Structures are given as structure tokens and as C-alpha cells.
Amino acid sequence: MAELRFPDGFLWGTATASYQVEGAVREDGRGESIWDRFSHTPGKTFEGQTGDVACDHYHRYPEDVEHMARMGMNAYRFSVAWPRIFPEGKGPVNQKGLDFYRRLVDALQGRHIQPCLTLYHWDLPQALQEKGGWDNRDTGRYFAEYAHTLYQALGDRVPLWITLNEPWVAAILGHAFGQHAPGFGDFPLAMRVVHHLLLAHGWAVEAFRHDGPRRAQIGITLNLSPVEPATGKEADGQAADLADRFTNRLFLDPIFRGAYPELPDLMRSALPQATPEEMERISTPVDFLGVNYYTRQVVEADPQGLYGVGMVPARGDLTEMGWEVYPQGLYDLLIRVHREYHPQAVYVTENGAAFADEIQDGEVDDPRRIAYVREHLSRAHAAIGAGVPLKGYFYWSLMDNFEWAFGYSKRFGLLYVVPGSLERVWKRSARWYAQVAQANAVPLG
Ligand code: IFM
């Protein structure tokens, strides 16, 4: 059968994040996070759902690792809950929290699955929020200390480290649009948070270079999407360029070029005055870029929209999130970051789709997810052929989980999680993805 073969050593994995899967929020000394506080605030999440129990990965991780091993995965991307390690965000280490991640890493290594550890996937300790959260520059210092603690504890056994997951989402959805924790609607605040997250990233990379693990690699994961104008009109082209600066380049430029892109005055003036030393720290070279890709953005000039830009509603083949299925966007994006920013290596650290999966007679048939992954992998393969140093692909997500403000109403998993019992059931896509990983190739047709 015709197939697309991937380079030897390519990483095949799945991704999750602490608050979305772990549960056990009051166990073994874990402190409160901003997502505990937000999800317990009436009206913030779908039907008031929370991550209190989530998928109970905290207790069921051995079973989850077994599922990954049976699928033939050779990598797993997970995040550490900062408040498990430092319940107050700083101060004394909570050994029991560290022990959980030690056990998880042991289990993964026992099954020859490479751990890929994200330090921050949005669950800031609430105690630090009380001190200003990411509006407080010191939070970045505490982040670097937390990162350092993990380098010391796990550095010799975790080959891939990610400082931040999707800082754009944490900054903008959390501080300008109020859809994520901590739930503020203050645009200038969000721009300050952008800068402080970038500083936190830079300080954590610096700590890694100074006395972090020698044989491991560190990078950052950004949510990126090509931005296309709705028409060929000049005004729409300008809107697309502005939206690209505000979304993709807001993080790519400082990290890879040491400077913010040109921004409209209102955005630029809200950014703190950065010193050359700060920009140098932010652009401390990383070993890889993590790309989270789900869909493209189509925009038009719109005087009523934020900064004169309007989003054109997605059309065509849509997922349950209302996101257009657009595999070509992954190719375009990978080529663009390779040509314009030259990362040494790239990983697709998330790509996936939510569909309205149903379990019938113990089976979940999800052909649309298989088609989604097949098409995106075929574009990833083409990007490798065009010279992109793509080293791995992580499907989002291993299992259905807590999709932030949408609660459990959106199912992204390869494993169906049965409400109540939390039993894991392999969807047909899990079996298909297992074949891909085991063959290191995508079957065509
Ligand atoms: O579930 C999220 C994840 O936490 C970050 N990236 C996008 C996913 C789907 O929305």
C-alpha cells in the first residue's frame, strides 16, 4: 500500500495538560490554581464544570501509560501543575507533588516513551495571582525558580522541555477577553502580561543553560495560525497583516528576533518599556519551536472590530469547536516559521479536533478525526520534504478532557472517556494512529 514514510527517530505522541486531566486538586498538598478559582466561579465554564476530578490521571496514569504503549507511542507531552510543586507559588517545595511526576516519568521510561514536559500550561498558583499574577514581573522570577527545581529533579530523565504553552492564549483570553482564568477584561493589562510571560520564558531558558540538564533540549510552544485576507482588497490585506502581528508575530518576533513587531500605538503603548537586556534575555536561543496548529484565521477590515480587524466566520468543514478544517494551513505555517525564524527544530506539539463522538456497543467510530489527522500529517510530511526540521507530532489529546471554558462538552481525545466511570475506550482513530506510529508512516487511501 502507498504510504508517506517519516524520518527515522520521528516522535509520535499525544499531549495533555495538568489541569485538563489530572483531577486530585486537593491531594498530596497541591495548592489552589487560578483555574480552580475560575472554574468554581459561577458562570465561567460550561454548566459550572471544573477540573476537580477531570480524567483522574493523577491516579490512573499507569493505565494511561499502558494505553500509550499499546498504541506504540514513543513520546508523551504532559504539563506540570506548578501548585503541586510550590503550593504557594514559591517557598518550600512540596515533595509529594514532585514524587507524582517522578512516578509518571518512571512509568513512561519503563515503556520507552520519551517524556516531553511543559512547565506552564495555565495553572498559575492562586497565591501568586493574589500578588498580581502575571502583571507582577516577579512572577517570572518565581517561574524560573520553579523551572530550576524541576530541572534538578527530572533533568536527567526528561529530554524535551517546554517553558510555556500558548502564552498568547494565557495573556489575551485570560486578561483581555476574560474567557480564561484569571478572567480579566483589561487590554493594557493583557499586553503587560505578554511581556512578563516572555520574560519568564527567557529567565527559565537562561536557568536551563546555566545549570540545567546537559543532554536535554528546551523550547516554547506557540499557538500559531496563518492569517488570510477575506478578499484581495488592500484594506483586507492590511487587516490580515495587523492580525498576523498581533497573534503570530507578537511572540515569534521577540523570541527569534529580539524585538516586538510594529504594533498600533494603543497596543505598543501598553507594552512595558523593555530594556535591551530584557529583549536579549527573551531571545536567548531555544533548541526548538513547538507549534500548536488547529485552523487558519480569515479576516477583513472592519471599523467596529478590535483595532479595525474583523474575523470572518469559519465556513466549510467545521469541527465541534466551530474551527475550519484546513490542513494546508499547517504546511504554510511550518514553511513560514522555517524560512522566517529558522528554529533549529520544530515539533507539532498539538494538532487535533473535537467531534461529537458517541459510544455505541462499546465502540466509538470517528472517521472525521482519522481524516483530519491523515490530512494534517500528509501536509507535515510535505513540509519535511521541503526542508522543515520537523522532529515530531503530538496529537491533542490522548483522551477527552476538560476543555477549559467548554468543560467536558468537547471531545478531542483518541481515547473516549466515559462520563462517571472515567473508563477509557479506544476510538477508531486511536487504532488508526497506533498503526501510523508503529509503521512510522501514514497509509494513503
Ligand atoms: O485544550 C486546548 C489546549 O489546552 C491548548 N491548545 C488548544 C487545545 C484545544 O482547544
UniProtKB/TrEMBL annotation:
List the EC numbers from the record: 3.2.1.21
Chain residues that bind substrate: 20, 121, 165, 294, 396, 403-404
PROSITE patterns listed in its UniProt record: GLYCOSYL_HYDROL_F1_1, GLYCOSYL_HYDROL_F1_2
The superkingdom listed in its UniProt entry is: Bacteria
* Coiled-coil regions listed: none
Q: One GO cellular component from the entry?
A: cytosol
State the name under which the record lists this protein.
Beta-glucosidase
User: Which organism was this protein described from?
Assistant: Limnochorda pilosa
